[in-house]
Each structure stands twice: as structure tokens, then as C-alpha cells.
């Protein structure tokens, strides 16, 4: 039997925080999208438009 005083292989607290921030940002995005729908519709999407040398 192993004694309970042996250190277990636990991840660092910063790894847990960073991994938990991913779902949190997704949830916050959907909440903001439901509360402020115009906020994300007016953001530029980065669509490429053709260049015209005459202008």
C-alpha cells in the first residue's frame, strides 16, 4: 500500500485556469450575443474587396 504522504501528479494551477478560460469565453460570447445582438453585427468581418487602380 502506498502512503498518503506521497505527492500526486497534479497539474499546475495556471494550467487549470487557462484551460477553464476557454469555455468561459465561449459562454460570455454567447451571453453578449443574446443581450447585445447589434454589437457583433456591426463589427467588420474582414471581407476582401477588389482593388481598382483607377480609383
TrEMBL record:
Keywords: Membrane, Transmembrane, Transmembrane helix. It comes from the Bacteria. The chain crosses the membrane at residues 12-32. This is Cardiolipin synthase N-terminal domain-containing protein. It comes from Chryseobacterium caseinilyticum.
Amino acid at each position: 500500500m502506498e502512503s498518503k504522504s506521497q505527492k500526486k501528479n497534479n497539474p499546475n494551477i495556471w494550467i487549470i485556469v487557462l484551460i477553464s478560460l476557454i469555455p468561459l469565453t465561449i459562454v460570455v460570447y454567447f451571453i453578449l450575443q443574446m443581450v447585445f445582438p447589434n454589437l457583433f453585427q456591426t463589427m467588420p468581418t474582414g471581407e476582401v474587396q477588389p482593388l481598382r487602380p483607377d480609383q
